[in-house]
Amino acid sequence: MSRVRKKEDLFYSLLEDLCAELDRSGKAYLDIFESYPDGVERIRAMKDIETECDDKVHNLLTRLYESFITPFDREDINELALKMDDVVDGMENISRRLEIFHVGSMRPEAVELARLTDQGTTELRKMFAHLSNFKRDPVVMEQTHRIHEIEDQADDVYHDAIARLYNENDAPATHLLKWNTIFNHMEDTIDAIKLVSTIVSDVVLKNA
Known about the structure:
Layout: H1 3-35, H2 41-66, H3 74-100, H4 108-129, H5 139-165, H6 173-206
Helix pairs in contact: 1-2, 1-3, 1-4, 2-3, 3-6, 4-5, 4-6, 5-6
C-alpha cells in the first residue's frame, strides 16, 4: 500500500471511529428516554460519552492539521468532525435538561424523537462505513436519502408534539416552557444529523 493511500485510510478510519461514538451516543440517548425517570444515572453517563467524543474530535483535527495528504478537502474533514461533535453535544445537552428541568414524566413524542435520533446515528454509521469507497459505492448517497426521510418523519413528530403541548389548557407555563425547549433542541439535534449527511453528499458530488 502506498504512503498516500495509508494517509487517506487514516482519515477514513478516524471519521468512522468518530461516527461509532455518535451511534453509541444515540443508543444511550434513546435508553434515557425509554427508561425515564428510572435510571437517571444514565444521564450522567452521557457526559462521559460526550467527553470521549471530544477527545476523538481533538485527535482527528490534530492529525488533520499535521497532515499534507487528505482523501478530500481538509475543510470538509474539519467541518464533518465539528458537526458530528455537535450531534453528540446536542444529545448530552438535552439529556441534562431532563434532570435540570425536573421533568416528572416522559412524553411519548419525546421518546419517538429520541428513537428517530438513534435511527439517524445508526444510518450515519452505515454511511461512514462505506465512505472510503464513495466514488464507486452507491451506499453513501443511498444513506443520505434515508437520513433525509428520518428528518422528515421527525419534523412531523415535532409539529404534532408542539400542537399537543399547547392544547393542554390547564398546564402551567413552566411546563410548557420546559417541554417547548426540550422539543426544540431535539429537533435541532436531528437537523444536525441531516447536516452531517448533507456534507458527506456534497463531498461525493465534488469528488465524483
